[in-house]
Amino acid sequence: MNSSLNAMEVAQMLNITKNTVYEMIKRGELPSYKIGRKIRVDKSDVENYINSQKNTFISNSMASFESTINMKPSSVKSGEIIISGQDIILDILCKMIESKTKNIRTYRSNIGSYNGLYDMYNNKVSMSSCHLWDSETDTYNTSFVKKLLPSIPCILINIAYRTQGFYVKRGNPKNIKNWNDLSRSGITMINREKGSGVRVLLDGKLNSFNISNTINGYKNEETSHLSVASCVARGGADVGIGNEKVSKQVDNIEFIPLQKERYDLVIKKTDLDNPVYKSIVYILSSKEFKDELEGLGGYDLKDTGKIVGQT
């Protein structure tokens, strides 16, 4: 039976507001139905929407998407800032950019870190968030930026640190504690899509521990932390991987911490002469931005706004 979601669950799955969900339903972009007086949306319809929107760009203006037009530009246009990434932090950043700069519209590209850097190389996005772990150096992001944006000098500004770990059912009935447990018989996992930071982390760990990727469920994919946690909560898998913050949003989920990741924003050095990008760098290091993130909870903000890497 298809899983049914309420408006708030859809909003969390898409990293948007509940009002935006209602607007999408009103415009016919998202199928829905009523149970009593409550609007419900099938999870499969949300997933179909996500798949249809890959590599399109969704406005995050202060009008809360009311004038959104899905776009697939060949390059970033003047007066636009397109930020690639999936964390709700980027919604806050977009809102602050629009409130503090004139004649700039911000857009979000809701794709994973690897594909975001690739699109940045091809000038399809202005900046990309990144949380890619390099198993060879046990470091985050810098080596991937060098590989995916060759000969393009960039700076990496820290947004936050997030804790990644396992989502298991409350009580951890299968006693899953570490990476090696994924290969145990009787364990089924739910994976993330290729190009996501979680998928890169998983594949790196499997390689480091010489674990075969023939794990039960390895080929079963979801496109967000929330979808992974929800799958585990309803018994679709025994374990998934995601960040700690999302685990607190899903009932019947327990979080097993494994690794703290560095979540950065990548900006081309050539863009830093542009007053708009100077304003963005200032926003990232501002007390106002940090206060907004502290209000969300679940993030380590010790280096927020600091340049933590260069290429």
TrEMBL record:
Pfam families: HTH_17, PBP_like. Gene3D superfamilies: 1.10.238.160, Periplasmic binding protein-like II. Residues 98-284 form the PBP domain. Residues 9-53 form the Helix-turn-helix domain. InterPro entries: DNA-bd_dom_put_sf, HTH_17, PBP_domain, SinI_DNA-bd. It comes from the Bacteria. PANTHER family: BLL2305 PROTEIN. This is Excisionase. It comes from Terrisporobacter mayombei.
